[in-house]
What we know:
Blueprint: H1 4-27, H2 29-34, H3 43-60, H4 67-80, H5 82-90, H6 100-120
Helix pairs in contact: 1-3, 3-4, 4-6, 5-6
Amino acid sequence: MIGVWARRVMRALFSLLFLVSGVAHFTNRAFFVSIVPPYLPWPGALVAISGIAEIVLAIGLWIPGWSRAAAWGLAGLLIAVFPANIHMWMHPALYPNIAPSALLWRLPIQGVLVAWAYWLTK
């Protein structure tokens, strides 16, 4: 069984990951807009909404009574943005600064992040 302190460290790391990523949606907006699959409407709005959601949910992991819902929200968000990872992997020429192997690894890493979020719901 994992200890309370280890669980807090894992929650802190997960929260930090999404705080940084959420802020990056606004500081590196062009990149995030570029990975939205072309069949989705309003890429700029989707990037802003997902960035805000990441920040709010990352903070929510630390609010008693909201932590479990925030973890579920992050799991859902990770699933919702998975098409962007597939789009990047299928169109590596659009992302010449990212190694194709890195684009491929993003796919299973997303699954690990969903599992991590699920673990935080317990």
